[in-house]
Amino acid sequence: MGIRGELFSTRLLLPNRTYFLNVKENRMGDFYLNIVESKNKESGGFDRQSVIVFADDLPAFLAEFDKSLKVMEKAVRDKKRGSDRPRGEAKPLGAEKQRSGARPRSSGKPYGGDKPRRSDKPHSSDKPRSGNKRVVVKKRPQ
After folding, report:
1. 119 with 110: CB under 8 angstroms?
2. Of 22, 25, 33, 131, which sits most exposed with the smallest number of CB within 10 A?
């Protein structure tokens, strides 16, 4: 086992940022994937963001990641295809964007009849805020 339980590490260097993918084992013997993004700060130093995915959660994470990739690839293809058209030319029929997982509206009521719409529920913005909270899985000290 390597430093701090590290079993494998690889690095992807890009012009504006660097990604590290580390496979590690914690003290309890659980394996996890640590994905770290590092980019230069304008004031000097580095800004690091980290996400940890445990081995038990990896199949579900990868399935959702794969869905996201397919949507992104389709969006890139559609954008490239759309940029080939001269400006002002009409889009082909059926090119409207559709929500993924959208249900057909067979009844006259949206979202399947008597079910309350999501917007009918109390919204989290109705509650007083205690400051902007941002979820950060893990940050390493510099």
Report:
1. no
2. 131
